Amino acid sequence: MRNMKNKSILIGGLIIIVLTFTTVFAPFVTPHDPAEQNLEDRLSSPNNEYPLGTDHFGRCIFSRLVYGTRTSLAIAIAVSAIVVSIGTILGAIAGYYRMIDNIVMRFADIALAFPSIVLALAIVGMLGPSTPNIIIALSAAGWGKYARLVRGTVLSIKEKEFIESARALGCNDAYILFRHILPNCVAPIVVVASLGIGGKIISIAGLGFLGLGVQPPTPEWGTMIKARLPLLQVAPHIVIFSGLMIMITVLAFNLLGDGLRDALDPRLKDMMMK
């Protein structure tokens, strides 16, 4: 079992490191500018000049996939940082102060009542398709899960003896929360956040496929699939590679999250299956 944990973390982490490296050094690893068009080479199959071929505008698919990775990862990580921050703060307050609990949890219930992609679609549809609006929409749809997770952890810890001892010593609530309670929430938050990034990447691609995601000419996997889908039978490679990138990236974060879950807190497996 330990070997399986290590393999999951190793494989997932290695793929994520490679993806991160290629996005950071994208100008050096891509043979062409992602927006550069060469109509003479449109719909080319993979070759020495274009490692994964070209699309219907003669743009290098490999270059656009690398820059699309940068776009998807940047949005997914930004959303994760926001939902973890908001969910942790509100969940900690709700779990520690019972008077505020009902208010916070009712808003969390509203956020969790709809599938995240449906709520994100509604918000982006109202605000308009743009990167900031995608981040706002996915953040609004995703914070409730973290608030509920942290609240449950706080409720299980705040009555323990070491917390009572801290209160008896005169420690204020803020000190108790940040020094004694929240550190115990780190493991479940890290696990859920790791698994959640994969879901956010799928949501980003889904919004792009429906025309409400990152707008052209900025490369993004879902938008790229939508634009090339009519040419699937003529040049299948221009669609397949974008789908493979989504699959590989989501798989990497799921492997990392599964490995971290089993290594940090095996009890989370049973909690998340319910």
Number of helices: 12
Structural class by sheet pairing and helices: mainly alpha
Which of globular, elongated, flat, extended, rod-shaped describes the shape?
elongated
Count of separate structural domains = 1
Plain-language structure description:
This protein has 274 residues and is mainly α. It has a single domain, classed as Orthogonal Bundle (MetI-like fold). The chain has helices spanning 2-24, 26-29, 61-96, 98-113, 116-127, 131-157, 161-168, 173-181, 186-209, 221-228, 237-264, 267-273. α3 (61-96) packs antiparallel against α4 (98-113) and α9 packs antiparallel against α11 (237-264). The longest helix has 36 residues, at 61-96. The radius of gyration is 22 Å and the shape is elongated. The chain starts with a helix and ends with a helix. 39% of the residues are buried. The model has no long low-confidence stretch (mean pLDDT 87).
Summarize the structure.
The protein contains twelve helices and no strands. The protein is mainly alpha-helical.
Keywords:
274 residues; mainly alpha; MetI-like fold; 12 helices; 74% helix
Topology of this protein?
Elements: H1 2-24, H2 26-29, H3 61-96, H4 98-113, H5 116-127, H6 131-157, H7 161-168, H8 173-181, H9 186-209, H10 221-228, H11 237-264, H12 267-273
Helix pairs in contact: 1-3, 1-11, 3-4, 3-6, 3-9, 4-6, 5-6, 6-9, 7-8, 9-10, 9-11, 10-11
